[in-house]
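Our working data are protein records whose layout never changes between entries. Getting from the letters to the tokens is the skill we practise here. To make this concrete, we reproduce a full record directly below:
***
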Amino acid sequence: MKKIVLNINQYNHQVSFDMLFVLTQFFTEGKLINNKIINVEHIAFDDEFVFFEADASHAVDLLGKTITQNGFDKAPIIISLNSNALFTETVEIPKLSIQEEKKAIQIELERLYEDYQDNFVYVQRGRFVNKQLRQVKTFFYNKNHYAEILHLIKRLKHPLLRVVVTPHMLAQAIQSFHLCDLTQPFIFVNVAELFTTILVMNKGLQTYHLVNQGIMTQKDMDAMDFYKYESNIIKEVALEVKRVMNNYQNAEIKAIYLNVENEANGNGVDLLSSYLMHEVIKPLNKNNILEIFSLFSAMQKPKMFNLNFPTRISIKKKSKKEK
């Protein structure tokens, strides 16, 4: 079975795409035995192309041609959304019945965000802080922008398997594969080809931050030019990591891990360590998954605590009076 992982990197209105083409092989009784990576592609646009303010035909054509060239026409797609436009609101409420809890959260969210159900697509996750207090997190994303993403897939004429959130899937993979010491709080920095994701972990994902920079493959650059290029990107990443650490006032953070997906020379750890003046270490590279970590993580089946956004939504049409 062929599958496509489409990683959508969004920073404000700028969008880029990472694509992973996967062949899933089965035993005859249906038991999964292997995911074979066929190819990885990256599609970036110049700064003048603003995805949510432009006709998406250019993006549809590029994605469609890339899919056809790889022989994956009609293959189902998994969307992995990596966006700084996702935001979270946390509500704490006393222990209530399911219906009472739903109503209490709705009232609080309507107080904070008028007409939130019309303006946002959202997912909620809750946990008990203690026997009497429950904490519910609501994850929001602009509904019109989300509809444009779904319409993009519809225009490609591919079935959509699911929509996951990249940082949450990265966190799940870190925990599932024990890539770091999970017994203490840490920061995990993943630098992909087009985007960087910074995770703050403490018995699960606490928060994440994005940097609209990545490190591309060395290609035609000589070693010295690539070192300078990588150094400049790592310097920008370090500034954001410093902000994260200051926000948490180190928050008991004991370790900082760095994974540079396209790194051949291994300089990233030393560079980040020197900019932060803090020890930085590499995560354990089990099964060589770190070379395509942001895409590989999206292939996992999301666990119950993870975020699965809907594959279909309805948009409320504005009345003439509202227009």
Observations:
- The CA atoms of residues 96 and 214 lie 45 Å apart.
- The first strand starts at residue 2 and ends at 11.
